[in-house]
Amino acid sequence: MSSVNVNGLRAAAKKEPGFVSWLSSTEADVVCLQETRAEPDQLSAEVLAPQGWHVVLCPAQAKGRAGVAIYARAEPDEVRIGFGEQEFADAGRYVEADFGEVTVASLYLPSGEVGTPRQEEKERFMEAFLPYLVKRRAQVEERGRSLVVCGDWNIAHTEADLKNWRGNKKNSGFLPEERAWLSRVFDEAGYVDVVRSLFPDQEGPYSWWSYRGKAFDNDTGWRIDYQVATPGLAGRALSGGVERYPSREGRWSDHAPVTVAYGIGK
């Protein structure tokens, strides 16, 4: 299973190597995308309906913003858009799809900016989303199912998740209250940060690097893209990590895919 913020699906698809070539080579059965920023009629057939894939595209009502998607080799049993909060119902920030015993979600949590309405939007989203995660875990586990929320959470949880953590203590994405909220997702709601569970003592692996300067070359990144799973599924993670691009020139997004192999059915 893979998750990546594509930073504009049309742009990512036009690059070579780019999203299309990556999708054709990935071994993932499910791919979650964030920040697609595209309407269906703006996408070519090889992106909207690639051979061998079923696509759920959820653009934001505000054109050119946000947008999430799920690409899967199997047709989903059921799809749900949003998480019940009216403000974000058409915001292109959350979609779920059921595949057998597992529900897969693609999340694009607002990025925020301290002292602006964008940060206020992020805080409202977080306030509404945590109770949903608590409720949703209870629902899926009661039915003997699992849930994994893949996506751009736009929060670096600990100092190990951000190279320049000292210089970002007052910036959105590493604010104490944001980090505390993410701790509640893990401690109170009981979800597991799957990649961190696989690499408990490692800095990173980072999944986002600024386009400015030599952030990518120096691996001065942030780990803000996660696969967050209910404990039963997290315990079946066999391997995983970040598919870091081989070079700065070969990047087709400022985020890299986060990929985890699960032993489903084992």
Automatic annotation (TrEMBL):
Residues 3-255 form the Endonuclease/exonuclease/phosphatase domain. The record marks 154 as: Transition state stabilizer. Keywords: Hydrolase, Magnesium, Manganese, Metal-binding. One of its GO terms (biological process) is DNA repair. The record marks 255 as: Interaction with DNA substrate. Probably binds two magnesium or manganese ions per subunit. This is Exodeoxyribonuclease-3.
